[in-house]
Amino acid sequence: MARLFASPSASRRVLGLLLCAAILAGAAEMLSPAPSLAGEGRAIPAPVLDEPASGATSEVAVLAGGCFWGVQAVFQHVDGVTNAVSGYAGGEKTTADYRLVSSGTTGHAESVRVSFDPRKISYGRILQIYFSVAHDPTQLNRQGPDRGTQYRSAIFPTSAEQETVAKAYIAQLDQAHSFDAAIVTRIEPNRTFYPAEAYHQDYLMLHPDQPYIVINDLPKVAELKRLFPEIFRAEPVLVSQAGITN
């Protein structure tokens, strides 16, 4: 959906208000149909292939699944995650800017760098959460109301092992028909992650009543708690506490 204003937060606020108005008026048919409801999670099997134990205490996963506000919030509530930073991946450093990325012409996708302790949670488990509740991996270049390549479903592996696990898991889920359509998630290795502007960090925690957040992102956190209660953490890890570079 095209941006309505130059201000990044203003456009999403207006979009959220329009969505609320449509729902209250019973005019849902005016919105473009989506394969699933916003925030609707899906129970899927864990990956058969995962990274072997290495003794490492820290690892990084970079994931894209639509607006980074919701993806970040989901992983901030996962036990074993030590930080989740919103940012951009897939393009050049010179275009890692919100207004440029929003044009859909930079090659970047809104992404989240998830730092985690592999002794507590595996990369495969991170991917299970990503596919299950963080976004809908069957939507091509869109998530819910947001459209464009900057909202694509993509995994940016940080190692050859991550790439192998991600490819195998996608094949596993497709073979099992875990979703109603084929997974369109792209695997894009050798891409650099660039942190987003400070006002995008911890966005859901700072703006929990914003209509866009209420409609699209809070349900994802609720689904995380429902489907993964054993690893759900009530108190999120925040960038404001962990730091943007960690």
How would you characterize this protein structure?
The protein has 246 residues and is an alpha+beta fold. It has one domain (8-242): Peptide methionine sulphoxide reductase MsrA (Peptide Methionine Sulfoxide Reductase, Chain A, 2-Layer Sandwich). It is 34% helix and 15% strand. The protein has eight helices and eight strands. It has helices at 8-24, 68-76, 98-101, 123-134, 160-175, 203-206, 211-227, 239-242, and strands at 59-65, 81-89, 109-116, 142-143, 146-147, 153-156, 186-187, 193-195. Strands 7-6-1-3-2-8 form a six-stranded mixed β-sheet. Strands 4-5 form a two-stranded antiparallel sheet. A hairpin with a 2-residue loop joins strand 4 and strand 5 (146-147). The two termini are 33 Å apart. The model is unreliable at 1-7 and 14-36 (pLDDT under 50).
Question: Which helices and strands, and how do they pair?
Answer:
Layout: H1 8-24, E1 59-65, H2 68-76, E2 81-89, H3 98-101, E3 109-116, H4 123-134, E4 142-143, E5 146-147, E6 153-156, H5 160-175, E7 186-187, E8 193-195, H6 203-206, H7 211-227, H8 239-242
Parallel strand pairs: 6-7
Antiparallel strand pairs: 1-3, 1-6, 2-3, 2-8, 4-5
